Amino acid sequence: MTTFTTEQRVKLEDYLANHTLPLGLGTEESACSIAAINLAISGELTDEIPDCMSKVLGKATITLQDAMPGEMRNSARYKRLLPEMAGTGRAKEKERLAVLMDWMWSTVLPQIQPLADERGFGVEWSNMCRLKTSEATRCAVRAASAPAAAYAATAAADAANADANANAADAAYAANANADAANAAYAAAYAAYATAYAAADAAADADTFWNAVDPIGVLERMTYLEGDKE
């Protein structure tokens, strides 16, 4: 089904009002973000992204909902957003990916700069965030002395490569382009996950990190693309 109906939306809103969103897939009594959407649509407990939802947005949601603190994942703000995300469709995957990639480069990865400066790979990290290329990320990976920072840079490189593949594909290969965009979304969201651990390694509070990067905010921007919704 490619349409998220009013009836399904009501079911989802009711579920979210009365259940807790867990880490991982969960159960019917406590299902993850995507599984909760699927329970409202089909009654099935699965984290397969439904056809009515952007796959790019779904991939980012799967990773970010597990990464963010439980209080944030179960906030009223996040639960209000999920029904809006469910009906986004797949016509604007690259536009949604562009929002996520900009967040990764401009907001998330720069959180590691103080740690990078302290441990001697500040120049490489700064270049990666400025140049936003897979080559610059490879240099940062080689230079990084903090393992979590290297993981974050590796994920950023994967996202950059998949993003380039998606942008290179023309309309005749739209399905492949969308798949590349979804892969890039997963890598970009994972980079945020790894960056959180690197930030913790630098003695920063994890909640402070997530409040600073505001993962719900990027999911909101990916959902409400300019011109899509009022």
The portion of residues assigned to helices is 55-70%
> How many helical elements?
13
Weakly predicted, low-confidence segments: none
- Mind summarizing the main beta sheet? 2 strands, antiparallel
Task: Count every beta strand, where a strand is a DSSP E run of 2 or more residues.
Answer: 2
Evaluate the radius of gyration: 18 Å
Beta-strand proportion: under 5%
Shape: globular
Helix/strand order, N-terminal first: HEEHHHHHHHHHHHH
Query: What is the count of distinct domains?
Result: 2
Instruction: Return the structural class.
Output: mainly alpha
Measured distance between first and last alpha carbons: 24 Å
Strand order of the largest sheet: 1-2
What is the mean predicted local confidence, pLDDT? Answer: 90
Q: How would you describe this structure to a colleague?
A:
The protein is 70% helix and 2% strand. It has 13 helices and two strands. The protein is mostly helical and 230 residues long. The two termini are 24 Å apart. Helix 3 runs parallel beside helix 6, helix 5 (76-86) packs parallel to helix 13 (215-223) and helix 8 packs antiparallel against helix 9 (134-143). Strand 1 and strand 2 (30-31) form a beta hairpin. It has a two-stranded antiparallel ribbon.
